Amino acid sequence: MKRPLGGSLRIAEAAPADTRLLTIAADQLKEFGPKHITVVGIADAAGMTHANVYRYFANKAALIDAVAGQWLRRMEATIADIADSPDPADDKLERLIQAWARIHRDLLKEDKHLFDVYCSATETSRPLIRKHRSRMRLLIDRVLDEGIATAKFDPRDREKAHAFVTDSVYRFINPLTVRLDAEVPQDILDQRLATMIRVILRALANGSV
């Protein structure tokens, strides 16, 4: 039996209020979905009045977007770790793309409701998505620039090279297309992604983009 939305779960008071609210909202979002959680229920679980929630988040939609933004920042941190690693640029780009795709697929499997929020935010190009795209662009550009500096990559046009990378793996990194592929076996998706990565690395190395 599911517990009530405003159940007895309490997050340790030592945590900052906004952190506690995000943790509770993430848990309730995962269990009940965005339509069935309320600011009142989240506030009750945090041991505060709903008026206090509005000190940190303008409304329920802003709180839910903040949960999605928190997940996006964790993904960006994982990608940044790869971009900052000491590996050769071509190896880093391969691992970066693989991690980017895997993280999307894992979220789809593990937290469908948050994935749906991510899809909705992507469809409407909400601010958290625009910021996320900008940060991801910087990480990819960092690896491309390193590859150019070390002669691993020799693109004719850096901007076109970036577009070629993201366009080539669009199916694996856009939540809308990832959701469309939900029933495709993972081994098949892995094979298709591996093929695209080989194409990308070859094109960057031989200057065909």
Ordered list of secondary-structure elements with their pairings:
Elements lengths: L16 H16 L6 H8 L3 H4 L6 H24 L5 H22 L1 H12 L3 H23 L8 H11 L1 H4 L1 H6 L5 H21 L3
Explain the overall architecture.
By secondary structure, the chain is mainly alpha-helical. The chain has two domains: 17-57, Homeodomain-like (Arc Repressor Mutant, subunit A), CATH 1.10.10; 61-206, Tetracycline Repressor, domain 2. The chain is 72% helix and 0% strand. It is built from eleven helices and no strands. The chain has helices at 17-32, 39-46, 50-53, 60-83, 89-110, 112-123, 127-149, 158-168, 170-173, 175-180, 186-206. Helix 1 (17-32) packs across helix 4, helix 4 (60-83) crosses helix 6 and helix 4 packs parallel to helix 7. The longest helix has 24 residues, at 60-83. It is elongated and about 60 Å long. The termini are far apart. The relative contact order is 0.11. Mean pLDDT is 92; it is low at 1-12.
